Amino acid sequence: MLYSSIDHISSENDWHILEKAHQRACQILGRDPKYHPLAEQVARTVIMFFARGERDYGRLASMTAKREINLFEFETETMGTNVRDMSIIVASRPKYFH
Questions:
Q1: The domain containing residue 65 runs over which residues?
Q2: Which of 3, 56, 71, 78 is the most buried (most CB within 10 A)?
Q3: In terms of C-beta density within 10 A (0-12 exposed, 13-18 middle, 19 or more buried), how is residue 25 classed?
Q4: The pTM is what?
Q5: Is 21 inside a domain boundary?
Q6: Is residue 48 part of a domain?
Q7: What 3 state SS string does 21-84 have?
Q8: Percent of the chain whose predicted confidence (pLDDT) is above 70
């Protein structure tokens, strides 16, 4: 059985940090936190950094956004013109970054 990194999150404060970090990261990336096709990927990345020990929601959001931007750039470079669904990639491109 695989250990879920979310299993050890027990306090209400931890959930609050995760929620704020997810919302802020999605805001940075220009993604709707509930309806964007890649919003769940953002949540998984926030949880990954949280599981590694980061507890500041601002840093979690920033680290997550930077990772998502790097993944976006890597995917667009490696896929070249063979992009299956350009609409998801264009929609996931960040509008701004602080």
A1: 12-92
A2: 71
A3: buried
A4: 0.70
A5: yes
A6: yes
A7: HHHHHHHHHCCCCCCCCCHHHHHHHHHHHHHCCCCCHHHHHHHHHHHHHHHHHHHHHHHCCCCC
A8: 70
